[in-house]
Each structure stands twice: as C-alpha cells, then as structure tokens.
Amino acid sequence: MTDIAEIDLANAGRRVTGHGMDAWLDEAWELLKLAGPLAATQVAQMIIMGTDMLMLGHFSTTALASATIGNTIFFFAWLMGFGPASAVSPMIAHILGAWPDNRAGVRAVVRMGLWSVLIVSLPLFVLLQFAEPILLLLDQKPMLAEGAGHFVSALAFGLPFTIGYQVLRNYTTALSRPVAPLIVMGVTIVFNALLDYILIFGNFGAPRLGLQGSGIASACSFAFSFIAMVVVIWLTPGLRKYRIFRRFRRPHWEKLGEVFWLGVPIGLTTIFEAMLFNSATLVMGTFGVASVAAHQISLLVPSFTFMVPLGIAMAATVRVGLASGARDIEAARRAGYGAILMGTAFMALMSIVLWSFPREIASLWVADPVADAKVIALAVVFLHVAAAFQVFDGMQVVAALSLRGLKDARMPMWIAAGSYWLVGAPVGLWLAFGLGMKGLGIWIGLALALGVVAGLMCWRFWYLTRAR
Q1: Which of 142, 291, 431, 447 has minimal Cβ neighbours within 10 Å of its Cβ?
Q2: CA distances from 254 to 24, 170, 174 (A)
Q3: What is the pLDDT of residues 389-419, one digit of tens each?
Q4: Helix-helix angle 289-325:439-465, to 10 degrees
Q5: Which has the higher per-residue pLDDT, 217 or 301?
Q6: Where are the alpha helices (DSSP H) in 288-371?
Q7: What one-character-per-residue DSSP string does 438-462 give?
Q8: pLDDT at residue 15, as a whole number
Q9: At residue 210, what are phi and psi to the nearest 5 degrees?
Q10: How many Å apart are CA 449 and CA 30, to the nearest integer?
C-alpha cells in the first residue's frame, strides 16, 4: 500500500535554515502544510460535538442544557489526562530536532504517554460517576443535574479511549504526518452521527434513550476513533516503522517523569482556561434554561472558528520544537511569529463574520425560532462579544503552543491562572451580579481575560526567543 502521508507531506518535517525573506516564506509554507490537516481535524472534532448538540437541541431544550452542564464535568476529567498526552508532541519534536533517526526515543515517549492514560483513567472514571451530586453542590437545578448525571455516567466509559487517541494523534503530528488523524476523524463523524440518530431518537428499532443515548453514542465514538487510529498507524509505513507498541510493558522512568513534568503544567494551563468557560456555563445555569442554551450556542460557534488557529498552534509546537531541539533559536522565533500572525489574521476575518450575522447563526441551532426567541435574542448578544474577542483568542492559543514547543510550560501556567482567575473571573462575576448584567457580564469577563493572556503569552515568547 502506498503511504498516504508520505505523498501529501513528504517534506513537512523539513527544518528551515538560513536568513531573510526566503527563510520566512519557506517556514510559512512548512507551517501551512502541517497546519492545514491539523486544523481540518480540529474542525472535524467540532463537527462531532456540533452533531451531538444539534440532535439534542432537536430532541429538547432541556436535554441540550443538561448535556451542556454534564460536559463541564466530563471536560474537566478529560483535561486532567489531556496534559500528559499533550507532552508527547513537543518531546518527540525535540528528539527529532536533535537526532532525526532516534526511533527508540520516539517509541519510549509514545509508550510512556499511553502509560499515563492508564495511570489517570481509573480515578477520573470514578470521579465522573458522581457527576450529579457534584452539580447539585454547585447549585445547579436538580432536573438538569439529574439528566447530566445519566449523560456523564455513560460518557465516562469512553474517557481512556479519547485520551489515548490524543497520545496517538500527537505522535503522528510530531512526525509531521497529520493526515492519519484527519482520516480517522472523518470516518468518526459518520459513525457518531449514525449512533446519535439511532440512540437519541430510537430509530431502526432501538430504544429511545434521549440524553443517555447521546452519552452512549459519544463513548462508542471515542473507542472507535482510538481503534481506528491504531489501524491507520499500522497501515502507514512511515508511522508503523517506529513500532510504538513494541515492549509495551517495559517502563522508561525518565520519559514517564518528563511526560508528567511537562504535561501537568500543560494540562493545568488548559484547565485554567477551559474551566473559566465551563464555570461560566455553570453560572449561566443559575439564570435559567434559556441562558444556558444561548450560552452553549454562542460558545459552540466561535469554538468552530477557534479550531483553525488551534491547528496552526499545534503545528507551531512541532515547528518550534524541531528548531529548539536543534538549538536554532532564530528558526524557532521565525516559526512562532509566523504562526501567531497566521492565527491572528484568520480570527480577524471570523470576527467580522460573527459580528455581521449573529441572528442567522444562532437560528441554526434551535428547532423552532419562534418558540425559542428568547434563546436567540440572548445568543445574538453573546455572539457580538465573541466577535470582539476572536483576535485575542487566536493570538493567545498560538503563542501558548509556540511556548510549548520550547518546552516552556510552567510560566504559561501561571500566566493563564492570573489572567483567567484573577482578572477575567472576578470582573465577569462583578458585572453579572454586582451590576446586574447577568450573562452579558460573564461574557465581557471572558473577553477581558483572553485579551490579557494573549498579551502576556506573546511577551513570554518574545522574551525567550529575543536576539541575544
């Protein structure tokens, strides 16, 4: 079989050397070749989530709100395992930047990344079984908490598979072969949509499970994507040659330690951001079902646009990591700055779109625009704020993942903690409750936090790569 990735991305891992405009253009081309499939994979993942929300929204607004609340708990658990999985990409990039033929080192990193999945999955699975009482303690409405509990209990069975998929995906990304996860996500979209259609609505003779059916469908889709990823790796010669499952039971304590040493602050950085947005969802729950539904719609739409700069950012991790592993600070700086510029430019364009068509966008996600007029009206207000923070969102994620390529994880963690929880959260709560702005106040706080973190992450990258 011909290696698909070799055809499409034969030179995607080439390290650009030299100076001047030619070097910048070459780096931009290398970045785009890697970022394109990565961004497409991120969009595919969002299509899967959007399919879940779309079908639940047409099932009932209450089911949509319960799933939104439940996802806040599941996402927290996922992020706890996501950190060590994320360390795989920069670790491999550094190894290949210094020693391009070091297969044993690459294999050890992937093996220990999968070990980290086994280590964290069991306690997180147990935590997820208590989703309903946790949500009740967080003052969520009992009806929503009960539905979310059933949803999360089913979804929890897919947790080790979705984290394991991230390890394998980061392995292929670090080798500059991102086509494999794109293929897997494309097939998973169809698999997940079919299961949602069957289990939520009870089609083809299946029971009508509603919200719980969505959780079961998502868990099965997580397992499917992991198994499919293993198969694609095995079928691709350029990926199979590293024999990542060889001697799987053999520990490599140094690499395992680095996976957690680098991965824990990466995970916490993501948690500080994600939990601010998820906490905003929980606060929205105190304002009623319409506010939660509008918030979820307004968050889902810019989340789609965010997938493109996130794909660029993931490519930047590899490009910066390769240069950093080779101790070429000029190339690392060039890769990071080029990626930041690309991500910012794309989000500026998306900001115009969200500002211009908020009502049309919001109407796509409800079954009856007349009955759900309040949801749409709130979503229009929130989408206007989302349009305002698009540029900051793109800038901060690319800068943060460029720092990850330098293996700089602890300072970005503190930047995220301060920006999101010492600036964004207090201001948002004060506006929402102190000034009575409710949901709008929460969204203004989110925008402010993203602006602060974007500026500080860019400054940090400049500081570490400045000319000496």
Answers
A1: 142
A2: 36, 19, 20
A3: 899 999 999 999 999 999 999 999 999 999 9
A4: 0
A5: 217
A6: 289-325, 329-356, 358-363
A7: THHHHHHHHHHHHHHHHHHHHHHHH
A8: 57
A9: 60, -125
A10: 32
Distance, CA of 132 to CA of 136 (rounded, Å): 6
| Whole-number Cα distances in Å, 445 to 14, 257, 291 | 41, 36, 16
Q: Which residue has the tokens 């906490």?
A: 279
Residues, the chain, total?
468
DSSP state of 16: P
Highest mean pLDDT among 5-14, 367-376, 443-452: 443-452
Task: Return d(Cα 255, Cα 105) in angstroms, integer.
Answer: 9
Dihedral sign for Cα atoms in the order 203, 206, 209, 212 = negative
Q: Cα–Cα distance between 415 and 398 in angstroms, integer?
A: 15
pTM: 0.84
Does 109 have pLDDT greater than 90?
yes
**For the segment 12-57, what is each residue's pLDDT rounded down to a tens digit?**
356 555 566 777 787 888 888 888 899 888 888 878 877 887 888 7
**How far is residue 77's CA from residue 127's CA, in Å, rounded to a whole number?**
8
Distance of alpha carbon 434 from alpha carbon 164, whole angstroms: 43
